[in-house]
Design brief:
Chain lengths: 478, 199
Amino acid sequence: MQFDTSMLIPVLPEIFILTAACVILVVDLFLKEEQRVISYGMTQISLLLAIVVTLMTAPAETRIVFDGSVIRDGMSDLLKIAIYIISAGAFLYSKDYLKDRDLFKGEYYVLGLFAVLGMMVMVSANTFLTVYLGLELLALSLYALVAFDRDSANSSEAAMKYFVLGALASGMLLYGISMIYGATGSIGFQAIGEGLANPDVNKMVLVFGLVFVVIGLAFKFGAVPFHMWVPDVYQGAPTAVVTFLGSTPKIAAFALAMRMLVDGLGGLHADWQYMLVILAILSMGLGNVFAIAQGNIKRMLAYSTISHVGFILVGILAGTTKGYTAAMFYSIVYAVMALGAFGIVILLSRRGFEAENLEDFKGLNERSPWFAAMMLLVMFSMAGVPPTVGFFAKMFILESVVSIDMTWLALVGVFFSIIGAFYYLRIVKLMYFDKPVDASPLEAGIDTRIALSVNGLSMLALGMFPAGLLSLCSAALS
Amino acid sequence: MTFEKFVFYVFAAILVFAATMVITRRNPVHSALFLVLAFFSSAGIWLLAEAEFLAIVLILVYVGAVMVLFLFVVMMLDIDLATLKAGFIKHMPVGVLVALVMAIEMFMVVGPANFGLEKVPAPAAQGAGYNNTEELGSVLYTVYMYPFEIAAVILLVGIIAAIGLTMRKRPETKFQDPSVQVRVKKADRLRVIKMDAED
């Protein structure tokens, strides 16, 4: 490899976030307890600056550097910017929550930034090795974040489950990668694509490897039947962490699927298409049905995640640019919706009280009509009620499978969405038609109020004008 | 049978024996020691495959560091073997069946049919001056520089997570502060009490 400094420009966003995380780690050491807000502020500023750095270094055409380890294309840039913005939102919502519970520490933000870095590495990975390392960086940071509330037995248990199952999934993924390496002799996505075109390639070994790769992927997505960790982790982890864990990593998981299955194993589309069909139908079905039975709002949102993952998989399995665009749109929109929903859950919680049950939403309209309206928008969007953006996200996905003559799959999707609408609308009913159980007013800083309002209204704004984000997504993939 | 083949079979037999002992011994300390033997035999096999650097690293890192730590942990923890072993006999038939099916499947895929010598020819032998440490180093810091740096970041996260999750201030812990000890003055330690002499 011939090294020249211009190779560093495409990875400048990663370098920037890594430097920022290390600087915050050191600065935080010298801060007093009451100055902790400086670490928080620095984290938010780094995420903002990262947007600027990413935009400024955006190359005119796709660039592959470091001997094929890194790819910088339209998709990586758009997804990275979405990751920065949504992570910043998650950090903002979690600030007051952490302060109230004496968890307001620099490590939360440092680990959060490292998780963001892991997602960035995954998003612009171009070999299986880079994908895997990015995934581990993200996962390791998340394990530590889930266990962040050290004195809570629930979060330790959740972290343990997450860690053991995550390690198992990584093992599966690695085993699959080793098979693909055995068959094609390479771990770079372009070289694997060329290897697949070779008629002498050993199909049996390849498909064997593919099965393990898909299993690893399904674990990370939380798709049925590899979803067991999702509800437990969502319930056990501190709400502030779930807000982060439940939103942006879904974008990263989408990128993981795109890089591995489309960039790398695109030649095996006919083989993985039906594997994803099974995962998608099971996820949409089980996710929506099980969510109805949940009395805990975090568990309910966990099952709702599983059903939304099913939809994202439907878009990917279509195997057309239209499908990928729809899946990308859906994953970004889902991350924003999840952020809003957990933001409201955080808002309802306060020192010594966790708003975890559906009853806590009773009569929210009387306590705060504005936030009830925001939650209404988020719930409508998750259910897919027009004119919120959730409707369009679902519609684009369904359109893409109809166009490849899998209308039956679209019908299955619609059927389960209707079942799913029940539990989202139940929350709306609790908020508007029930008497509040406790009438204490909601306390929130001005920043949280503004962010939640923007978050809620964006559901409506994106729904009124979906063309903007959609054209960004399709431009990123072309 | 050439001498090399003989050595391979000896190492392989020891490896399989040691691996079986790891999972069947009642005493976890014995299991850990057998695992050391298993690592050692695999290192021998790697040495036969001319992967000298990896063989030595396996012994240095896994036997020298990881297993010693493991032994300490096993000895420190009071593991209740009875609860661990509960249900072992009950679940064994299912476990054996699953393991057997998996072994057959894996043999079909990674066995000689797909990865035999005629499918994947053995690499050509290297000359006497060949140094595989140098070869590894030269790709590790050039071609694989980016993944190498990411791996370093993962280790950093590991350190932060470990310290963040385990370090806590315990107010009841007693400790010495040498700087305070040095700065101590006579007045801090000695109290002269004036009292009347007793009769």
